[in-house]
Amino acid sequence: MDIKDTAHPLDGAALSAFLDSLPSRPRLLGLGEATHRVKELRALRNELFPHLVEHEGYRAIALEIDCLKARIVDDYVTTGKGSLDEVMEHGFSHGFGAMSGNRDLVQWMRAYNEEHDAKLRFFGFDGPLEYWARSPREALTGLYDLLHEPLPCTRETLDSLLGADERWEDEESAMNPARSIGRSPEAVELRIIADDLAACLDMQAPQLSAEEREQAELYARTATGLLRYHYWLADDSPARWGRLSALRDAMMAANLVAIAERHGPALLFSHNLHLQRNEAHMRFGDEVLRWSSAGAIAGTRLGDGYAFLASALGTVSGDAPAPGTVEGLMAALPWDRCLLDGAELAAAVSGLSPRVSSDFAYFPLDPAHIAVTDGVYFVREATDET
User: Fold this and answer.
1) Is 358 a residue whose pLDDT tops 80?
2) 214 CB-contact burial (10 Å; exposed 0-12 / middle 13-18 / buried 19+)
3) 246 occurs within a structural domain
4) What are the DSSP E strand ranges found in 119-241?
5) Is the pTM of this model over 0.85?
6) Domain containing residue 214
7) Same domain, yes or no, for 80 and 142?
8) Considering the domain boundaries, does residue 95 fall inside one?
9) pLDDT tens digits, residue range 87-118?
10) Which of 126, 190, 200, 371 has its CA at a distance of 20 to 30 angstroms from the CA of residue 114?
11) pLDDT tens digits, residue range 34-43?
């Protein structure tokens, strides 16, 4: 099969046709990034999301940012609370608030919500972590304050066990397990309390409003996930980074499933590495880490309710793809951006070698994994926005 037979110029109509071709309409549609900070990918996302809202009934978008911080953005787009500058500074993690495409998205969502009764929602689905992790205080105390007596401890005991946030948020703990307090007696006790509070949430769910339940469930997932992550930050075995990577994606997947259940259909925007269905792998120093991606986990839970479009890039920061790669073949197509069916593309590029890049943050398409994507979207020029 010629690759031209699988490709169509990418616009809203092409995306709707792609959705029509799926076995059923997904509750989550993942739009992947081959690398972060490509402004053309965010511009395309900002073009496609309004089409999904107007023509496909989408009412939510979720980005790869801190799930707790993102509530600041959601408050702004739904109620106008705060200023846009404050929201971009405090509502995004990983430095993504400084990107113009994200600012444009938030502005458009706020303007839309001012004119419509059915509000668009904004979510983050990453945990409150980088390579190190934030304090579990916000999640634990937030969950505690939403519940009613009897509870497993007093608020004073909870605050005492948490101690100073600086003890938890030591950036050096990422590379030095001895700097982590994740296996201290206080942290171990907090893991038990978090589990008990999650059980209290289950028992008290009928007494909570739908909004309170959703908020409490987010706090419960985040608290237990963070404490689990901190526990493994303190591990000094060779399995440490593989386990941490897997735990992060498991936290992402739990948030994605919750978004699908309450707010789908929703558009996702995140790195291919997290949204893909195949096993994730990444070189980390002398190791190659392997783990189940958030997309693989969420896809297992949601079945046909999850769909994924991987991104492929042509020229990246002046580096053009070689002709014998998937990206090289796409670069010969007549469109600056196009959409290709995953199964058809996999058959057309069988036997090709993956593109090689010196950029550790850029993950070119692996021809062996294209068959487990629903589709691939290609952008000819990729401009980095730092």
Assistant:
1) no
2) middle
3) no
4) 121-126
5) yes
6) 137-237
7) no
8) yes
9) 999 999 999 999 999 999 999 999 999 999 99
10) 126
11) 999 899 999 9
